[in-house]
Design brief:
binds flavin mononucleotide; alpha+beta; Pnp Oxidase, Chain A; 3-stranded antiparallel beta sheet
């Protein structure tokens, strides 16, 4: 049985999915692609996490951001252990999570490719010398509370010391593609 999902394409997805039948897989080495496709059904926002290191500012695009607790204000995100930036991000005591607007796709793509190239990026040093990116929809200034093991990722739990937010629309990531929020109600 071939239990892999077909490659996904934004333009054809809506039509091709109409003809797809539901499939069930057991996550494992032979079903990695299909499992990713199942997870990709869940749309998320896109964030860029920044911190300061001994060698300068560091950033990483992440969609694993989640609110955990309101009181106390706790949020998490998950850096992959395979990432070259992983160790710096689990070691740092303070970091800033920036929520991307729908106009910041280029910024998100930039920091998915490069973590330490801030040339041409609009930013400034904020509290504790942390890099603060300009023009984001929201930003959460965090102090690390705990780092948990999460398989091939780490789970970084942070206490939000300050949240800043603006009106506007966020960048959406779903099925490996980027989009805008479209209101239905
Ligand atoms: C939309 C998007 C979301 C991402 N989310 C995560 C994430 O939550 N965790 C993670 O470790 N990497 C995530 N990445 C990948 C990182 O941004 C980055 O590409 C990766 O750390 C590169 O590894 P390197 O540090 O070895 O160059 C995401 C990339 C994109 C484009």
């Amino acid at each position: 049985m071939d239990n892999r999902a077909p490659p996904w394409h934004p333009e054809t997805d809506a039509r091709s999915r109409e003809h797809m039948t539901e499939e069930t897989i057991v996550p494992g080495p032979g079903t990695a692609r299909a499992y990713r496709d199942a997870l990709a059904c869940f749309g998320t926002g896109v964030t860029v996490v920044t911190t300061r290191t001994e060698t300068g500012p560091l950033a990483m695009t992440a969609n694993s951001f989640t609110s955990v607790s309101l009181d106390p204000a706790l949020v998490l995100w998950c850096p992959a252990k395979a990432s070259l930036r992983h160790d710096a991000f689990i070691a740092t005591e303070r970091y800033v999570i920036h929520v991307m607007t729908e106009d910041q796709l280029d910024l998100a793509l930039h920091f998915s490719r490069s973590g330490d190239d801030f040339s041409g990026i609009a930013w400034q040093e904020g509290p504790h010398g942390l890099p603060v990116l300009h023009g984001c929809l929201a930003r959460f200034e965090c102090q690390r509370q705990a780092v948990h093991d999460g398989g091939d990722h780490s789970i970084v739990l942070g206490r939000v010391e300050r949240a800043t937010f603006d009106s506007g629309r966020g960048l959406i990531f779903k099925h490996g593609a980027y989009g805008r929020f479209f209101r239905l109600d």
